[in-house]
Every structure is written in structure tokens, then in C-alpha cells.
# Entry
Amino acid sequence: MTDQLTTTHPAAEAAVVGRLSTLDRFLPVWIIVAMAVGLGLGRAVPSLSAHLDAVRVGSVSLPIAVGLLLMMYPVLAKVRYRQLDRVTGDRRLLVSSLVLNWVVGPALMFALAWLLLPDLPTYRTGLIIVGLARCIAMVLIWNDLACGDREAGAVLVAINSVFQIVAFGALGWFYLQVLPGWLGLATTDASFSLATIVGSVLVFLGIPLTAGFLTRTIGERTRGTTWYDERFLPRVGPIALYGLLFTIVVLFALQGHTITSKPWDVARIALPLLVYFAVMFGGGFALGHRLDLGYAKTATLAFTAAGNNFELAIAVAIGVFGVTSGQALAGVVGPLIEVPVLVALVHVALRLRRRYSPEALS
# Structure
């Protein structure tokens, strides 16, 4: 993974990029290849999705869980847990993140779903569920690649996880039944399992977070901080990207046949997602800049606002509406759009970074 730069000079950034591994430097290419492999497998072997989805622990797909654990652990092992107090004491960052994630994000997705998919109720419901599932997984990868604040990212993801357990069901009831009723729109009956939400959070965040914390604590005590940062982390760092690529292959293999057989439906679902990612990222970056948070925290605020927990959204959609439902398809199309868009936004963030003075990079 890239480390945080200490200068805004383009030549210095180019020098850092030149020192990146082949895996890091050509990440967009590998992601496109992984998406193509997953779609190809799902198309060539229609029964593959059923076999992959059948390997589960509770409501969690085991192959996806393995990929996410590999992806999350190295990033969380990099977090300097002793410095978390400087993040939790920043009320501007915490309040801004809560408002963007739990007020603006769900409301924006609700509005986009109804405006752009008024004639497709199943896809519309799926997108609303996606809007309620706030980021807890892949966002740490994008934040790290964009040189965001790792400690801030860990704290905001943890806060989103707690709110997810408490608020997901209530917000689902509000946006699918109460608010449409107030506005004279069609309502959707859906019941969300608290066990599904808790299980998703515990698997996708709890396990790698605990492992990352214990690794850093034990590693620093036994071998020292210098060894941990300079010897251990470079060895485990690439595992995160391998996990990301594996997860992408599995996700797209699960619905490869459906995605490739319904290209127009995928395009219809993609449009509100594209608008959503652009507005949430741009709004988060503008707000962070307005609050003078510095580049690192501003980037973290923007990525945690734009990212979504598609794993949870897919699990809930399948659990409530079925694996072949339109709601589940909308959830699967999410990462199809999110992955390339947020990779592009990483590059946008790094370009915006040049606008900050070295003193403002924090």
C-alpha cells in the first residue's frame, strides 16, 4: 500500500508511484481482470453461484468472508491504535461522518432510487437497502490507497458498525414503509434479521479488527515498533490486495450469469449508483475542506461517506427476498459499479491532495 506523502510536488508523487509494487501500480487493471474472470466464471458455469452461495456460515457466504478477512486484516494491522484518541476527540470529523452516513446517504439513495427507477420496484428496493448498509469493509482499502488517515478510518468504520446494528432495521422500516406512505408512494414490506446484521458486522469487521489489534500489540512488545513497521507490515501488506481481488472474483461469479444476461437492467441500476458515489464523495470532500480537517481526514471522511457495505446489503436482500430476486441483483450490481468508480476516486483524491500545503497534510 502507498504510504502518506509528505509533499505536494508532482515530481515527488511520481517518485513514490515509481516505487510502488507492480500489484499496486496496476491495481485498476487487476480489478478489471478480476471482474472479468468472475463474470466469465458465472456465465460459463451457471451452477457455480449456487455452489459458492451454499458454502455458508449462518447468513455469511464463506468464500466472501475469507476474501474479506484477507483484505481487511493487513489494513487494520497498520492502524496505530495508541493514536486513536486524537480521532475520537475530533468532534467535527465524527459528527460530519455520522450526518453524511446516516442522514444524507440513505436519504440520497432513496431519492435517486425513486427518481430513476420509478417503474422497477424490486431494483428500487434493493438500492434503498444498499443505501442503508454503510461502509465497514472495502472502504479501508480505498482510504489507504488515497493516503487517508488510517486511524480515523478505523474509528469511523467501527462507529458505522455500531450504528448499523442499532439503526439498520429501523431505517429500513422508515424508508421502505413510513416515508413512502407519507409521500403517497408504494410501500414495501420487509423484515430485517438482527442476527444477519450482527453476524455480518462481527465477521467482516470484528475478526480482522481483533486480529489487527493483537498483531500490533504483540508485535511491538516482542520485536519493537521499528521492526513491526519496517519489516512485518511490508510482508503482510500485499495480502490485502490479493484478498480484494479474490473477493471481487467471488462476488461477480455469484451473479455473473444474471448480470451478463440483463445488461439493460444493470445499466438502469448503475445510473443512480454512479450519481450517488459522485455526490457523496464530492460532498464529503467539500465538507472536510470547509471544516479545515486537513487532507488525510478529509479523504477519509469522503471515502467512508461514499462507500457501502454491499456484503450486508446482499445478505439482507437474499435473506428477505431470495437469491434470484431483483433486490439481490441490485445489491450485486453495487460492487460492479463501486469498485471501478472508487478506484477512479482514489486518483481524484490524490490529485486534489496537491491543493493542500504540506502543513495541511495531517
